[in-house]
Design a protein that fits this description.
By secondary structure, the protein is mainly β. The protein has one helix at 150-153; strands at 5-7, 32-34, 39-40, 80-86, 92-97, 103-107, 111-116, 119-127, 141-146, 155-161, 167-173, 187-192, 204-206, 212-215, 238-242, 268-271, 278-281, 288-292, 298-304, 319-320, 323-324, 338-341, 348-353, 366-370, 375-381, 387-394, 399-404, 410-414, 419-424. The longest helix has 4 residues, at 150-153.
Length: 426
Amino acid sequence: MHTARWLGLVVVYSLTACAAGPSSPVQTAAVETVSAAMTAIGPAPTTEPPPDAAAPTTEPALPAPTPVLNVAVLPEASSYAWSLAIDGFDRPLDLQPTADGRLFVVEQAGRIWEVNDGQRLDPPFLDIRRQVGLEGNEQGLLGLAFHPHFAENGRLYVNYTDLDGDTIVARFSTSPESGRADPDSEAVLLKIDQPYANHNGGGLAFGPDGYLYIGTGDGGSGGDPLGNGQSLNTLLGKLLRLDVEGAEPYGIPSDNPFAGSGEVYPEIWAFGLRNPWRFTFDPASGDLYIGDVGQGSWEEINFQPSVSSGGENYGWSVREGLHPYAGDPVAGMVDPIAEYGHDQGCSVTGGVVVRDPALPEWNGVYLYGDYCSGRVWGLLPGEAATWQNQLLFDTDFNITAFGQDASGAVYLLDQRGGVYRLIALN
């Protein structure tokens, strides 16, 4: 059994990138305490922090997408629009479906709402505002994931900052009587101390393998002053992978890249990330796309094919995007598949891969946007690990997230309160 850990590290999603400042269970057993231009890119821990471990240095092959049926070219965006689906939310920043067709919107202050036919259903599905810290712009209730068997077990997982500003990843259960999540059912999986009020990551998703993936930022401030992105002695600046079925509060998948090493936190799946605010799995291929918020100059999209065995180093803070940032070069860093400069925006919002039967012209297009500029780009995999990358929409939204419902319909969330659906104009 792998017991819960209270990590002595001090991870808000980055609404703005920064140059030198802010950018965006409890189990019943004992708990351990341990402290420009847009560019397409082509071809068992103990209670003490483990000793510093060297990162893998094998030079990776350029990541290639999993072969699936995609469109050949990006669609003509002028034939499509973002149509208001539902309005009136207070800083919405996540949208998640359940497999049985329900749809939910997350508000930053700590509420989750079920929506149906353009209506918000009262009362909230979950309200944890009393325990969510929101002093910083990037703090709050930041992510939601429903268990793949939610219809049977009623379990959901959230990522939030508590009243001390620290990251909590917790499980809640749905009450059979009310059909809503019980706020008193919380079981904390992880608590990660945050050294600063920004770069908390926040994304959660169950992968095709059934494991829970968690995005954590580098701990904040600016320039990664604690060196967390490249360190394997911290859970900050990482993508984590947990087995929430194998043990309480969670187990370590045996094929995690650092499982059993005794020198590295075994929860780590990938590292070298600054603030992976939003990541997504392609529902058709299982490929993983990560939007990583940049520092002062470059925003990036990282990619992991479904055949990956994990352990990728995406480069922060040795580099920002493809550009040197701090420290000596490190062998084996995986290039982003796209980047854009701060003449195009200031804070990337990772998106979704379109698999909407109502929009066949978009099949396989990865949509992502920028919080500050409202621009929306499309990425489409080509041959030999090449990518088409194109600006598709120039909106006035403050884009906090993209999402999909159970049918595959694609949504965009505007921080000012609206949820918009991608539709064809004719």
